[in-house]
Amino acid sequence: MNDSIALCVVMMPRDSNVYGTIFGGIILSYIDQAGFIEARKHGNHRWVTASIDKVDFERPVCIGDVVRFYTKTIKTGTSSVSIEIIVESERLATAEKLQVTKARLTMVSVDENGKSIPFTSPQTAHKKASA
Ligand SMILES: CC(C)(COP(=O)(O)OP(=O)(O)OC[C@H]1O[C@@H](n2cnc3c(N)ncnc32)[C@H](O)[C@@H]1OP(=O)(O)O)[C@@H](O)C(=O)NCCC(=O)NCCS
């Protein structure tokens, strides 16, 4: 279960706060997406975020940084998958690569009605919710 790049994005001025660094919420949103991309490796289901356990914002992310989200499955249950996400920023000016954020979250596979299902079940991503 090695780290792989789930997402790679360039941070834009619209994502910044008044100090010129990137809002933590923007990074969190990408962390959530990266978690979904990692979870899908375990089954093509509807996956929901059950928890974001811990997020350490270790260094700021700056406008123009190329930000990579590395994911790794660290634990699997029946319907849940725990994922570690390491966020790395490549600085615009210097191309230096720094770890900026680390997070853990849990994704749960659910059926079309939002009920948890084993992620080994036949895929559910295509199913529409029943009325
Ligand atoms: C996640 C959710 C499906 C779990 O529902 P539930 O009734 O607790 O489901 P279950 O009791 O069957 O548990 C299912 C699995 O989720 C895990 N789980 C439930 N709540 C959890 C939590 N807060 N943190 C970590 N894991 C959790 C359980 O440990 C279990 O794991 P396992 O199957 O591997 O043993 C439900 O809480 C939910 O739909 N939450 C909203 C998800 C969402 O919309 N996320 C986006 C936020 S806007």
CATH architecture: Roll
Distance between the termini: 38 Å
* Range of strand content: 35-45%
Looking at the structure, the CATH topology is Thiol Ester Dehydrase, Chain A
Percent range of helical residues: 10-25%
Uncertain residue ranges: none
Q: What kind of sheet is the major sheet?
A: 5 strands, antiparallel
- Counting helices, strands and paired strands, the structural category is mainly beta
- Say which molecules are bound, naming each kind only once: coenzyme A
Would you list the SSEs in sequence order as H and E?
A: EHEEEE
**Oligomer description:** single chain
Q: Would you state the CATH class?
A: Alpha Beta
Give the overall silhouette: elongated
Number of strands: 5
- Rg is 16 Å
CATH superfamily name?
A: Hotdog Thioesterase
Task: Give the overall average pLDDT.
Answer: 94
Number of domains: 1
**Helical region count?**
1
Output the strand order for the largest sheet: 1-3-4-5-2
Task: Tag the structure with descriptive keywords.
mainly beta; Thiol Ester Dehydrase, Chain A; 5 strands; binds coenzyme A; five-stranded antiparallel beta sheet; 131 residues
Describe it.
- With 131 residues, the protein is mainly beta.
- It has one domain (4-110): Hotdog Thioesterase (Thiol Ester Dehydrase, Chain A).
- It has one helix spanning 24-39; strands spanning 4-10, 46-57, 66-76, 80-90, 97-110.
- The protein has a five-stranded antiparallel β-sheet with strand order 1-3-4-5-2, with helices on one face.
- Coenzyme A is lined by residues 48-51, 77-80, 106, 108, 110, 114, 116.
